[in-house]
Amino acid sequence: MNRHVVITGASSGIGAACAHAFAKAGDRLSLGARREERLAGVVATAFHHPLDVTAARSVERFLAAAIERHGPIDILVNNAGLARGVEKIAEGTGEAWREMIETNVLGLLEVTRRVLPHMVQNKNGHVVVIGSIAGHKAYVGGGVYCASKRALQPICEAIRMETLGTGIRVTSVDPGLCETEFSVVRFRGDEERATKVYQDTRALRAEDVADCVLFAVDRPAHVNLDTIVVMPTDQASPQMVHRGGR
Ligand SMILES: NC(=O)c1ccc[n+]([C@@H]2O[C@H](COP(=O)([O-])OP(=O)(O)OC[C@H]3O[C@@H](n4cnc5c(N)ncnc54)[C@H](OP(=O)(O)O)[C@@H]3O)[C@@H](O)[C@H]2O)c1
After folding, report:
1. Is residue 246 part of a domain?
2. How far is CA 98 from CA 41, 58, 93, 103, 148, in A?
3. Domain that holds residue 187
4. Is residue 51 part of a domain?
5. 181 Cβ closer than 6 Å to some ligand 1 atom
6. What is the reported pLDDT for 174?
């Protein structure tokens, strides 16, 4: 399609799967994340540049490099995000809370606020936000992660209102259980504990979520998909997952 697609957090999981899907569709990619060596291996031909969404200077440099390479941004996929720990509120730490809020909310804002003026000027653009079912329903040990994802809903709503009439689209793709490095990060590298999250159930694959993103951006220009909530068939809520066979 030859659209310029910027993906944050493209070094693994859903971001990397989106990169593959857009590359297959013939789009021009600008991929960002902190682990540059991982980014380089995602789509060999794609432009990639280090990005830490929590550092304003890094965001500025990343976007400047992306625009210099591929010109105006047609699609922004705000995917970079993480959860840290499963501590209850009374047992939580400011460090983990800050990391989640700074990455998932402030980082997303830092990127989006710099991209939107270009989109408004060009009267073209699609902002995709990777939210979560955690933003729809809280769960024990997920309070702050859930809050960080819930916060994306009014942000998306406000952008739709603020850009009304410019042709800009805003879509939130909100997945449930998806097998990526998400749980390894959440459990600070404890692979064994992370594996248990996906044990005996059929979680989403990152490609399933990328499919939803591609579906949303491929609708005709006059159609804006507001929110796509996508869960595995074996999941009914954040903490209700069927395990074992049928
Ligand atoms: N997996 C799930 O079950 C699930 C469900 C609902 C929603 N989500 C959401 O999906 C998104 C992608 O997560 P995933 O499941 O694909 O997990 P993942 O495999 O751990 O990928 C997370 C990505 O975010 C990047 N990232 C984290 N902090 C960053 C920062 N400060 N600056 C730039 N990039 C950063 C990571 O790259 P670097 O470490 O290289 O920077 C990585 O590429 C997240 O927003 C997550 O909240 C996941």
Report:
1. no
2. 30, 18, 9, 8, 10
3. 4-241
4. yes
5. yes
6. 99
59: CATH? 3.40.50.720
Q: Which residues are registered as beta bridge partners of 237?
A: 240
Q: What is the pLDDT of residues 18-46, one digit of tens each?
A: 999 999 999 999 999 999 999 999 999 99
Residue positions annotated with a catalytic role = 145
Determine if the pTM surpasses 0.90: yes
On whether the CB atoms of residues 203 and 193 are closer than 8 A, the answer is: no
| pLDDT digit string, tens, across residues 54-74 | 999 999 999 999 999 999 999
In a domain, 42, yes or no: yes
C-alpha 20 to ligand 1 mean position (Å): 16
171 pairs with which residues across the strands?
128
46 Cβ closer than 6 Å to some ligand 1 atom: no
Beta strands in 63-214 (DSSP E): 75-78, 126-130, 169-175, 178-179, 204-205
Q: Which atom of ligand 1 is nearest to the CA of 39?
A: 40
Contact yes or no for 47/30 (Cβ under 8 A): yes
Q: Which distant-in-sequence residues (6+ apart) come within 8 Å of 211 by Cβ?
A: 21
Flag residues of the chain having pLDDT under 50: none
**Looking at the 3D structure of the chain, how many domains does it have?**
1
Q: Residue 246's pLDDT is what?
A: 75
Q: How far apart are CA 216 and CA 211, in angstroms?
A: 9
Q: Looking at the domain assignment, is residue 63 inside a domain?
A: yes
Residue 88: CB within 6 Å of ligand 1? Answer: no
